[in-house]
Design goal:
The protein has one domain: TonB-dependent receptor, beta-barrel domain (Maltoporin, Chain A). The chain starts with 22 loop residues before the first helix and ends with a strand. The chain is mostly beta strands. It is globular and about 70 Å long.
């Protein structure tokens, strides 16, 4: 999150290899699933065959803050369940999101950046996606970051499911719900009904442990408490761009380490629920980002999250429900940056955010065929402290602490015009002390043409107000200047969705979408004084098609495939946006074997080539992951083993503009190497 680097011209680099998606897998993933209808068995008595039907009837809460069936949701929803997390061996929220339709992840060996529908702005700290935990905002109050990698404060073993609703969500959630809303729903104590001890080891000398206890008591109280920790030494990484005698021949040794500690607790009693978490993640930086000294062991970042969340829900009458919540959040960031080889000179970049928020919501069904939601929110950031200074000797470059408050008021009406026709209307007005007022509507028409076919037409707008980092990050060394007058980013979208379910165990969907956005905030140089600052300079548009198909067979095997085709271009010159793949393909298959004592999960993911900010490209790639799970190895003991990147594919993530060292002239990374074949083994004991 540090941007202390000189304004220097970019260097182009030669195009990297671009592997192609094998035709056989493309045919299986798209033609075989999306276009062909399988033969269905008539016997539905096997409970394992009901899992897809249960998904169809799962109540989604992320789109409108109320429980809705998937077919009634004003959007195209992706869901990953706890069983999916286990079957495919996902280790982080980024892994979970990477498996979803239309999402791609860029990992720069420090943070994971989420792109969706062809939009993944290099250097964006996931500010245009709203990430929730049990419906509560987690994006911090300084950088507006949505944590997704190992810094995400909740252990994946505590996740019941993850819901992703793409498209604008500001009509319900306000700022940051720009490209979509991700809601991480945690498990209850009843999900465990006892204790669990889990241990994991894997490649790169990785060690992990977790202790969890949860239970639902006879009096109805439900509680859960869990603590976990990870220590990974990482790997030595070679960067050909930095290959010189002075830079250890381009090898970063011992700088890829990753360590975290996490604590989570939740208690529900009657109408009240209280939850909280604490987490700390320390990550080494092997890329010499922001113009640092390459291969310097002092370079690292530390992210700390803390939150307490209390909610209350009550049925006031037969037609009126009340929901209220209050949350207190803290985020601390500390970056150590080695800009010189002098061992006693180090730059520290700090962020400290503390905020308080609350919401009051009423849901009324008092009018026939109407379900109306009235809501009001208030948020106050009582600390947004940013500092940057050198130690030995001490010299301050930045000290800023501009406080902020804001409020939002929204209403949504779900109108059942006919038994098979729903009109969903919503609007929200946000009043931000810095960004001013913003009004954002959402309109959705949901038509169930037949019991098997639902057609949805959507229109909506969203906004994102500039954060404290973009407005107030300025240095005394005449590199950066503030821009407190930044306007909010705006987006307008249209989407047409077809959902077809010809049988209880087979479904398909198709989404056509178009995005138009303006006033995007980007780092630029002022021609008058040569200083860097954030400005509303970009406008862009995107359009695309998403296809998905899912089939659950008798006996419990499950096949799921998706394909995304998107075209994101600058509205000014029509150029292809950076870090924007044109095609994404995904294939997931899981099945039980050996009398259902074991389960295998096979995953294939393909992402096409992407343009980089410095004028080159990173090639497309396809990787295969394999996970095996057994629940019958021994009494109360569960084992699982995963092989990631099974075929040992060499592939790159797109770098952003900060990935360069302190050489003169600076050397920019052409791409960031991702992990080759690696493994993990997990043992979980239940008591």
């Amino acid at each position: 999150m540090n941007i202390l680097h000189p304004d220097v011209p970019f260097r182009a680099f030669k195009r990297m290899a671009q592997p192609r998606l094998p035709n056989s897998l493309l045919f299986a993933a798209i033609t075989g699933l999306t276009l062909c209808r399988p033969a269905f068995a008539n016997d539905s008595s096997d409970l394992t065959s009901l899992s897809l039907d249960q998904i169809f009837n799962m109540e989604i809460v992320s789109a409108s803050k109320i429980a809705q069936k998937v077919s009634d949701v004003p959007g195209s929803v992706s869901v990953v369940t706890a069983q999916d997390i286990k079957d495919y061996g996902y280790q982080s929220l980024a892994d979970i999101l990477q498996s979803m339709r239309g999402i791609y992840v860029s990992y720069d060996r420090n943070y994971s950046y989420i792109g969706t529908r062809g939009i993944g702005r290099p250097g964006d700290f996931n500010t245009r996606l709203l990430i929730l935990i049990d419906g509560k905002r987690t994006n911090d109050a300084i950088y507006d970051t949505g944590a997704a990698g190992t810094e995400f404060p909740i252990d994946v073993e505590l996740i019941d499911r993850v819901e992703f609703v793409p498209g604008p969500g500001s009509a319900i959630y306000g700022s940051s719900a720009f490209f979509g809303v991700i809601n991480v729903i945690t498990k209850s104590g009843a999900s465990f009904q006892g204790g669990e001890l889990s241990a994991r080891f894997g490649s790169y000398d990785t060690r992990y442990g977790r202790a969890t206890y949860g239970k639902k008591l006879d009096n109805g109280m439900d509680f859960l408490i869990s603590a976990s920790g990870l220590n990974s030494k990482g790997q030595d990484l070679y960067f050909p761009e930095f290959d010189s005698i002075e830079s250890n021949h381009g090898v970063a040794r011992g700088l890829d380490y990753d360590r975290y500690k996490k604590l989570f607790a939740k208690v529900s009693a009657g109408d009240f629920t209280v939850s909280g978490y604490l987490s700390q993640r320390t990550k080494g930086i092997p890329t010499a980002s922001y113009g640092q000294q390459f291969n310097d062991p002092r370079s690292q970042t530390v992210d700390e999250y803390a939150s307490v969340y209390a909610s209350y829900k009550r049925e006031l009458s037969r037609t009126l429900d009340l929901y209220a919540n209050l949350n207190l959040n803290s985020y601390r960031y500390s970056g150590a940056y080695a800009y010189t080889a002098q061992s006693d000179v180090l730059n520290k970049d700090l962020g400290n955010a503390q905020s308080l928020g609350g919401e009051l919501r009423l849901v009324s069904t008092g009018f026939r065929n109407h379900k109306i939601i009235y809501g009001a929110e208030y948020n106050k950031s009582f600390k947004r402290d940013q500092q940057n200074y050198d130690i030995n000797p001490f010299y301050s470059y930045l000290k800023s602490n501009v406080l902020k408050h804001g409020s939002g008021f929204y209403v949504q009406d779900e109108i059942r015009l006919q038994e098979n026709l729903i009109l969903n209307l919503g609007i929200r007005r946000d009043i931000d002390a810095e960004g001013g007022a913003s009004n954002n509507p959402r309109i959705a028409v949901i038509y169930k043409a037949t019991p098997e076919l639902a057609i949805k037409g959507l229109y909506g707008t969203a906004f994102r107000t500039a954060n404290a980092y973009e407005r107030y990050y300025a240095t005394t060394e005449s590199l950066y200047k503030t821009n407190p007058d930044l306007k909010s980013e705006k987006i307008r979208t249209q989407e047409l969705i077809f959902e077809y379910s010809p049988a209880y165990n087979f479904r398909t969907s198709a989404s056509l979408f178009q995005y138009q956005f303006k006033d995007l905030i980007s780092l630029t140089t002022d021609a008058a004084d040569g200083l860097l600052y954030f400005s509303n300079i970009d406008a862009a548009k995107a359009r695309g098609l998403e296809l998905e198909a899912e089939w659950v067979r008798e006996g419990g095997s499950r096949l799921k495939s998706s394909a995304s085709f998107q075209y994101a271009n600058s509205a000014g010159n029509g150029e292809w946006l950076t870090n924007s793949p044109r095609q994404i393909f995904k294939l997931n298959y899981t099945m039980p074997f050996l009398d259902k004592a074991y389960r295998a999960g096979l995953e294939y993911q393909f992402t096409s080539k992407r343009k980089t900010p410095i004028g080159g490209e990173v090639g497309g790639f396809g990787i295969v992951n394999l996970t095996l799970v057994t629940q019958k190895f021994a009494n109360k003991l569960e084992l699982s083993a995963s092989l990631y990147n099974l075929l040992d594919k060499s592939y790159m993530a797109s770098p952003s503009e900060e990935h360069f060292d302190n050489s003169s002239p600076p050397r920019y990374l052409n791409g960031i190497q991702q992990n080759g074949r690696n493994f993990r083994v997990v043992a979980t004991y239940k008591f």
